[in-house]
Amino acid sequence: MTDTTPAALTADLVDLLDVEEIDTDLYRGRRSRDGVGRVFGGQVIAQALQAAQRSTEAPKTTHSLHAYFMRPGNENFPIIYRVVRDFDGKSFSTRRVIAMQRGQPILNMACSLQLPEEGMHHQDTMPEVPAPETLPTESELRARDAVKLPEALRAVVTRPRPIEIRPVFPRRWFEPVATDPVQHSWFRAVATLPDDPAMHRAVLAYASDMMLLGTSMLPHGVNWTTPGMQTASLDHALWLHEPFRADEWLLYSTDSPWTGHARGMNRGQIFTQDGRLVASVAQEGLVRKRRK
Predict the structure, then answer these.
(1) CATH code at 53?
(2) Confidence (pTM)
(3) What is the number of structural domains in the chain?
(4) Which of 140, 187, 193, 232 has a CA 20 to 30 Å removed from the CA of 211?
């Protein structure tokens, strides 16, 4: 039987994102052990980020990445990551990463890394929201609603996950109503992560693809359970501002300024519990309601 304790789930996530070097600038990311169908986009982004970080000597650290999804990944196969070293300067390094399966690219990513230095500073203020300890977990909310799902889908929706999420405004999966395109959710790894800062950046990149695309559907009273809805991430941009730990509470505040032409635009800010803005996110996704 699969070990689903928090420590085991976190260890499996660390192993998933710990890409294997198979040759110079060539890495392999294993498949998720409980993955079914399409690979989660956050996994591909995080593994590509790890490949870029592995190809760059410390102390340069990632400050931004920009990725385009081209094809859905298949959970039946590992993913190969090829790194291209475009630039190595005194302050910055630039990497391109191509993620491939079965000989075809599924994602292209550009990543920039910087030698740490001091400079001027300002930031947005964190929204005022309830503390995470006062909110129910996404797992508890899913378990409550899963009784309305077929048994096969129920197991997928309620399986234990390595990222704990506590939404400020719980979503109504089966009776969605139109609301403002704004969401706030606390998240963290379910157990302590290793101290490696690169792994914490990879885990945040992994989680940054959660709780984002659905924001653009909120004003329209639909979600992924709505019959005929087709959704997929098209691109993903992440800026890393400050050091953080992904096993401590982080607030993900998202909004959607525009949706149209079967595409939804989403933005996100990630804060530590003491109010530091540590990352910003932007993503456009496919949000298509198919005609009968």
Answers:
(1) 2.40.160.210
(2) 0.94
(3) 1
(4) 193
